[in-house]
Design goal:
It is found in: Endoplasmic reticulum membrane. The protein is of the alpha/beta class. About 40% of the residues lie in helices and about 15% in strands. The chain has six helices and seven strands.
Length: about 210
């Protein structure tokens, strides 16, 4: 076998390994067999949207055990100044980190052009997530969380990260999932809705009452 043939075979093996790992993880996620056992504090990412999404997720943050979920990193869009103010008000005297990534889609931006901006945001997010290596990611609907969750899932497929994704659908979604929810239902480890009838909309949805 020549060097080029060996290299080609090696690349094919890597691709097959990645695809098998991806399929395996999707099956594990969809069948609800995901677990996360930690005896020490959980490295946590909160993916902040803007406006109402920020308010909802920060309500959830106020009710968690701060000592259990630390260190905490908040990831938000680079042009979202108001959310940073709300985070600082919530995290008074606490240790936390802020990270900014490009916004996936701006208001009134076309869906076609948002594909390009989302890809750029995804590439930008890789070093952010890899550096923190979170154990768990919480998000609740903004498009900003798509790059974060995609990167976490891909790094998990590559055996570079052991992270769980928890998607909490916005309280405003009463009958149907948001676009983000429709995407993440295939690779978020836990899908939570805040209206009981929504469990009929998403086969994986779990209802625990109002969380945000």
């Amino acid at each position: 076998m020549t060097g080029s043939e060996f290299f080609s075979s090696f690349c094919v093996l890597l691709i097959l390994t990645f695809l098998i790992r991806m399929i395996y993880l999707i099956i594990v996620i969809i069948t609800g067999n995901c677990t996360l056992i930690r005896s020490k504090p959980i490295r946590t990412v909160f993916c902040i949207g803007s406006g109402g999404h920020t308010t909802e997720l920060l309500r959830f943050v106020k009710n968690i055990n701060m000592k259990k979920y630390q260190p905490r990193m908040y990831i938000l869009a680079d042009n979202d100044a108001s959310s940073e103010v709300k985070i600082r008000e919530t995290e008074i005297d606490n240790n936390y980190y802020l990270a900014r990534i490009p916004r996936s889609r701006n208001v009134k931006q076309s869906y076609l052009s948002s594909v390009v901006s989302t890809l750029y945001a995804t590439l930008y997010t890789f070093p952010v997530i890899y550096k923190l290596k979170p154990d768990i990611i919480f998000c609740n609907g903004p498009g900003t969380c798509i790059p974060v969750c995609v990167v976490a899932f891909l790094l998990r497929c590559l055996f570079l990260l052991d992270c769980r994704i928890v998607f909490i659908e916005s309280i405003c979604r009463v009958h149907t999932l948001s676009l983000t929810g429709k995407i993440l239902q295939f690779f978020a480890d836990i899908m939570i809705v805040q209206w009981p009838n929504m469990t009929e909309t998403c086969f994986r949805a779990k209802y625990f009452g109002r969380l945000t």
